[in-house]
Amino acid sequence: MVRYVPRLADGQKVKLAWPLALFRLNHIFWPLDPSTEKWARYLDKILAVLGCLIFMQHNDAELRYLRCEAGNRNMDAFLTGMPTYLILVEAQFRSLHILLHFEELQKFLQVFYANIYIDPRKEPEMFRRVDGKMLINRCVSAMYGAVISGYLISPVFSLINKRKDFLYSMIFPFNSDPLHIFVPLLLSNVWVGIIIDSMMFGETSLLCELIVHLNGSYLLLKRDLELAIEKILAARERPFMAKQLKELIIKTLRKNVALNKFGQQLEAQYTLRVFIMFAFAAGLLCALSFKAYTNPMANYIYAIWFGAKTVELLSLGKIGTDLAYTTDSLSSMYYLTHWEKILEHSTDPKENLRLFKLINLAIEMNSKPFYVTGLKYFRVSLQTGLKILQAAFSYFTFLTSMQRRQMSN
User: Fold this and answer.
1) What average pLDDT does the segment 302-309 reach?
2) Scanning 10, 96, 314, 327, which has the fewest C-beta atoms within 10 Å of its C-beta?
3) What is the DSSP letter of 113?
4) Taking 80 as the threshold, does the pLDDT of residue 295 lie above it?
5) CA distance 294 to 147
6) DSSP 163
7) Residue 138 pLDDT level (bands cut at 50, 70, 90)
8) Residue 118: how many other CB atoms lie within 10 Å
9) In a 3-state reduction of DSSP, which class is residue 131?
10) What is the C-alpha separation between 101 and 49, in angstroms, rounded?
């Protein structure tokens, strides 16, 4: 089974950054190549169903642990299992949505890499600018890699100490001590950890790449329009100036509409998954910060995870804000086409009137900025990221006050 290979419009393979190259190996979150045969597609669906069943088994075992510790009123032990359970439930929702829209995702990525992705061979300067905005996200991916490494190394210590410990806080409804039961369960722990960790950094990396390249395409649109206007003004062919600018704006508007349409497709593809991601973020950050606060040395994995999630939200919010700022300036882009100079020099009154009406239409079409949203409930912006952090801090202070009350009693 071959996973989808991103290609540019001329068929050239795209050199993926290492987080996306690893994410492409995730058989649940990355679509198949269109050339995949029917039997391979059926096999992939069977593997996806088996993966979902493993998720459900882990959900049941981790929920049993949480219910047990909640019944014992052991808040510290309860919060030990909370982060992995929250991210497991989040992964279940996101994976189900992707599996239901696998073919749409493949077609969407095909359109992106063929039409929106900035070709480094044609636009090396803009590609460097766009790729530079992904550096923070790649640092986040490395931090997530450190988190899963901390979990995967725990079986080694278990063997040294001659214990049969799972990677996560779990209670199974059956005896898991026999070796022929323990080993498969432990291997399923490893599989779940790798799948979910690659989801955490991979899908965010993909979403950030989609947004920054769309933003870069808008910037290229603005640059090309300004350069073409300079040529019209420099040539000063007075009988044709208004017509030349009109044709240029029509050409630019067609590209503008194509970019707007892709933005709508991006919104349709990711709005639910973004909502799920942000909805779980505050609770996850609260549990992580509490565990890191109570025992920083023993819970260093939670501290790294907290840092990765925080930077992820802020970097994604900043990229979303940049796109909104660029799309908000499109109306000004059409207004600042030096149309007044064109009308001053043009000798064709009919073309002048058509040009004036076209500019008004272009400004009206781009009167609102574009945001990626979570089911229209919130926007992916820096402000939203800060609000989530503020909510997480409020939950954290509540938990610390409860802990002090328990200790005083």
Assistant:
1) 92
2) 10
3) I
4) no
5) 18
6) -
7) very high
8) 23
9) helix
10) 15
**Are the beta carbons of 282 and 367 closer than 8 angstroms?**
no
Do 109 and 203 contact (CB within 8 A), yes or no? Answer: no
The residue written with tokens 């640092």 in the block is 139
- Answer whether 143's CB lies under 8 Å from 304's CB: yes
* Residue range 85-106, pLDDT digits in tens: 999 999 999 999 998 998 899 9
CA-based torsion, 271, 272, 273, 277: positive or negative: positive
**Two tokens, residue 39:** 């039997």
Written as six digits, the tokens of 377 are: 């409930």
User: For residue 286, is pLDDT > 70?
Assistant: yes
Name the amino acid, one letter, at 334.
Answer: Y
Contacts of residue 409, defined as CB under 8 A and 6 or more positions apart, other chains included, come to none
- Taking CA 51 as the corner, what is the angle to CA 187 and CA 65, rounded to the nearest 5 degrees? 65
What's the pLDDT score for residue 161? 77
Total residues belonging to the chain: 409
Mean pLDDT, range 307-324, rounded to an integer: 95
pLDDT digits (tens, 9 = 90+) for 140-174: 999 999 988 888 887 777 777 778 888 899 999 99
Average pLDDT over residues 51-68: 95
Distance CA 290, CA 399 (A): 8
Closest C-alpha among 282, 255, 256, 275 to residue 207: 275
d(CA 208, CA 316): 6
To the nearest whole number, what is the mean pLDDT of the chain?
91
**C-alpha–C-alpha distance, residues 366 and 116, integer Å:** 19
Cα-only R_g, the chain = 26
321-350 pLDDT, tens digit each = 999 999 999 999 999 888 888 888 888 888
Token pair belonging to 117:
């992705």
* Whole-number Å distance between alpha carbons of 16 and 116: 15
pLDDT of residue 1 exceeding 70: no
Work out whether the CA dihedral 199, 139, 6, 319 comes out positive or negative. positive
- Tokens 């965010």 identify what position? 204
Which sign does the torsion angle of CA 68, 71, 77, 82 carry? Answer: positive
Report the greatest alpha carbon distance in the chain.
92
